[in-house]
Amino acid sequence: MNNNTSKYSATQGIQHEEALLFEHAHEAPESIHLPGVEGAVPEALQAFMRQQPANIPGLSEPEAVRHFVRLSQWNHGIETGFYPLGSCTMKYNPRVNEQVARLPGLAHIHPDQPEDTVQGALELLYEVQQWLGEISGLPYVTLQPAAGAHGELAGLMMIRACLDARGDTKRRTVLVPDSAHGTNPASAALCGMHTVELKSGADGRIDLAELKAHLNNETAALMMTNPNTAGAFESDIKEICQLVHDAGGLVYGDGANLNALVGVARPGDMGLDCLHINVHKTFATPHGGGGPGAGPVAVNDTLKPYLPVPRIVKDGENYYLESTSDTSIGSILSTLGQSGVYVRANAYISAYGRQSLYKIAEDAVLNANYVLHRLKDVYHVPFEGVCKHECLLTDELQNKHGIKTLDIAKRLIDLGFHPMTVYFPLIVHGAMLIEPTETESRETLDSFCDAMLEIAAQCEAGETDLLHDAPLSPIRRRLDETQAARKPVLVWPQ
Amino acid sequence: MTIPANLKYTKDHEWVRIDGDIATFGISDHAQEALGDIVFVELPDIGRELDAGEAYAVVESVKAVSDVYTPVAGEVVEVNDGLEAEPEHVNTDAYGAGWIAKVKISADTASVELMTDDEYTTFLEE
Q1: Residue A481 is nearest to which of B62, B64, B65, comparing CB atoms?
Q2: pLDDT in the model for residue B93
Q3: Topology (CATH level 3) of domain A109-352
Q4: Chains A, B: CB contacts under 8 A, how many?
Q5: B2 part of a folded domain
Q6: A291: contact with B, CB 8 A cutoff
Q7: Is B3 contained in some domain?
Q8: Where exactly are the structural domains of chain A?
Q9: Burial class (CB in 10 A: 0-12, 13-18, 19+), A479
C-alpha cells in the first residue's frame, strides 16, 4: 500500500470482536427497572399475559453502550471514508443541516398540530416544494412520498389516473430500458401495469429505433433515468419525449441521477412529465440505514390535477393545507411528508443558493471524469466519451488473469475504501460503477485511483491469490454471499 | 465452458433439448458463469402455455435477477422441483441436473431462432 492510499485508509484501527447482545448477557438486567403493573390486569387482556419472562439480556448500561459503539466501528460510512457507490450519490451530509433539524421548534412539533401553530414549519416545506419545482422544471410538487420507490409509485398512479381520465384505459404498458434501476419495473407492476424492456443501443443509451418499435396504443409511459445508469446523458432526450408523447404516452423520470443535472439542466425542459427526486441523494439528507426517506414527485401541467392531497398552499403570508380535489389520487402518506428530511434539504439548498446550485453538478461530473481519466488505461471502459456524475468500468482486462469485479471490490476494502457499485447496470458484464460525488477533494480521488491502479498492477503481476482472498484486513473476511442468500439465518437462537 | 453438440441454443443463452414432442429447457454454461452463484430459481406452473420468447422462469444470482425465455412454444408438463432446495445445480450441472422445465411442444412448433453448438460457439466469440 503506498503512502497516499494509507493516508486516506479507514479500516486499520482497533476493532473489537463483538458477541451478540444475548451472548453478552450474564444475569437479570441491572439497568432496566420496569414499574410493574398497577392494580388488576383487565379481564380482556388476560389472554395476552406473558407466560414466561421476556428474554431481555442482562447488561449494564456501559456494556450495552460499548456493544453498539463497537458494532458501529465495523461500519464504513461517508464519515469514515470515500464511498463511491454508483447511482447512490453518497455525498457528505453537512452537520449544519443536523443542527437545524434539531431546533426544538422544528423537532418537537406534531403532524396533527393546528396549521396556525406551525406556520414556520409549513413555510420551510413550502419553500422546498417550490424549489424542487424550479430545479426540476416541473412546477408542481408533492412532498408526501416517503422514499424514491414510493415516489415512483405515486408518479405512476398519477400517470394512470391521467390516462384513465382521458379514457385511455388500454394503456397499461410501461417501457423500461434494460439499464433502469430495479425499482422501476416493480413500481409499474404494483400500479397494475406491466413492463416491457427496451434493449439499450451500442452506446448504452436508449435506441430510438428500439423505442419506436415498442410504442403503440397500449403504451402508458416510458420510465427512464437521465443520465442513465451507465453515467451517460441521453442526448436524444427531446426526441425520445416527443416520440412517447406522439404515441399517446407519458414520460416518467427516475430522479436518482439528478446530481448530474442540478442547477444546470431541467428534466421538465427536456420534455419529461414527471420526476421523483431522491432527496437523500441530491440534497444531502441522511442516506439509507432505515432512516426516514423522502421521494417527492414533481409534475407538469398534464399531471397536476392528480397530485396527492393534502398540499401546502400559500395565501398572502399564510400557509394552509388544501385537502380537497376531485381528481387527486388521494393521500399516500398519513402526514405531509418526512418534515425532518425536508428541513435538512431546505438548509442544504439554502446554503448553495440559486446562483451556486450548479456547482454541485459541475463538481460531481468533474470528479467522475477525473476518476475515469485516471483509470481508463488499465480498466475497460465499455462506453467511450465523457461521463456525467458516475463512470462505468468493467473487469474485462482483469478477467484474463482470473480476476473479477468482486475481487477488485473486496480488495478495495483492504485499501480503506467502500467498494463501488458492482454488477450494475446489467447491460455490461462485470460492471463497476463509480460515483465520487462533489464531496471529494482531488487528494481523496487520487488516493482511490492509486488504490485501483495498485489492484490492476497486482493483477498484472500475478498476485491473484491476494485478490481472491481479499479482504484481509477487516474483522470479517470475504462473506459467503451465496450461502447467505441460499440458507439465510434470520433468528437467534437457532 | 462446455457447449454440448446434442442441444440447440438461443441468443439469450438458453439451451433446449428436443426429444420427440417434449422439449427440455435450461440456461447455458456461459449464462450460469456470467450470472454467478444462483441462489433462487422461480419455476413456471405446470400446465402453463408458453409462447416462444416469453419469459417462463426467473433465476436469481448473487449479482442479479434475470428472466429466462422460452426457446420453443409449448405447454409446461414438468418442472425441476429439485432446484427449489438446490438451485446450485444450475451452476454445477447446467445441462443435466440444472434443467428448468419440460414442455410439450405446441402444434405450430413456434420457436425463437435456435443455433447449433457450432453456431452458438461462434455467437459467443463475436
Answers
A1: B62
A2: 96
A3: Aspartate Aminotransferase; domain 2 (3.40.640)
A4: 24
A5: no
A6: no
A7: no
A8: 109-352, 358-477
A9: exposed
Q: Which residues make Cβ contacts (< 8 Å) with residue A190, sequence separation at least 6? A: A153
CA angle B88, A196, B108 (to 5 degrees): 80
- Tell whether A425 lies on the interface with B, counting CB pairs under 8 A: no
- Helices A405-414 & A442-460 angle (0-180, nearest 10): 120
Closest residue of chain A to B84, computed from CA coordinates: A486
Picking from A169, A312, A186, the residue whose alpha carbon sits closest to that of residue A254 is: A186
Quote the CATH superfamily of domain A358-477.
Aspartate Aminotransferase, domain 1 (3.90.1150.10)
Residues constituting chain B: 126
Residues of B in contact with A422 (CB under 8 A): 63
Containing structural domain, residue B85:
8-125
Provide the residue count of chain A.
494
Collapsing DSSP states into helix, strand and coil, what is residue B91? helix
Query: What CATH number does the domain containing B98 carry?
Result: 2.40.50.100
Each residue's pLDDT expressed in tens, for chain A with a length of 494 residues: 455 555 555 555 677 888 888 887 777 656 667 787 788 888 898 888 888 877 778 888 888 899 999 888 888 888 889 999 999 999 999 999 999 999 999 999 998 999 999 999 999 999 999 999 999 999 999 999 999 999 999 999 999 999 999 999 999 999 999 888 878 888 898 999 999 999 999 999 999 999 999 999 999 999 999 999 999 999 999 999 999 999 999 999 999 999 999 999 999 999 999 999 999 999 999 886 556 789 999 999 999 999 999 999 999 999 999 998 999 999 999 988 999 999 999 999 999 999 999 999 999 999 999 999 999 999 999 999 999 999 999 999 999 999 999 999 999 999 999 999 999 998 899 999 999 999 999 999 999 999 999 999 999 999 999 999 999 988 888 988 888 888 888 887 75
The arrangement of strands across the sheet holding A140-142 comes to: A140-142, A297-299, A274-276, A250-254, A219-225, A173-177, A194-198
Cβ-based contacts of B39 with chain A (< 8 Å): 482, 485-486
Which strand (E) or helix (H) includes residue B27?
Answer: strand B22-27
Q: In which residue are the cell numbers 447446467 written?
A: B94
B64 touching chain A per CB within 8 A:
yes
Residue A142 one-letter amino acid: T
Domain membership flag for residue B105: yes
What one-character-per-residue DSSP string does A307-370 give?
Answer: --S-EEEEETTEEEEE---SS----SSSSSS-HHHHHHHHHHHHHH-TTTTHHHHHHHHHHHHH
Out of A423, A481, A485, closest to residue B64 by CB: A423
ipTM for this model: 0.74
| Least Cα separation, residue B120 to chain A (angstroms) | 18
Is the Cβ pair A481, B64 closer than 8 Å? no
**Chain A contact present for B88, CB below 8 A:** yes
- The answer to whether residue B65 sits within a structural domain is yes
State the smallest CA–CA distance between residue B62 and chain A in angstroms.
6
- CB within 8 Å: B62 and A482: yes
B83 CB neighbours in chain A (<8 A) are none
pTM (2 decimals)?
Answer: 0.88
Contact B88 A423 (CB under 8 A): no
Overall number of domains in chain B: 1
C-alpha span between A424 and A421 (Å, rounded): 7
Residue A428 to chain B, least CA–CA distance (Å) = 11
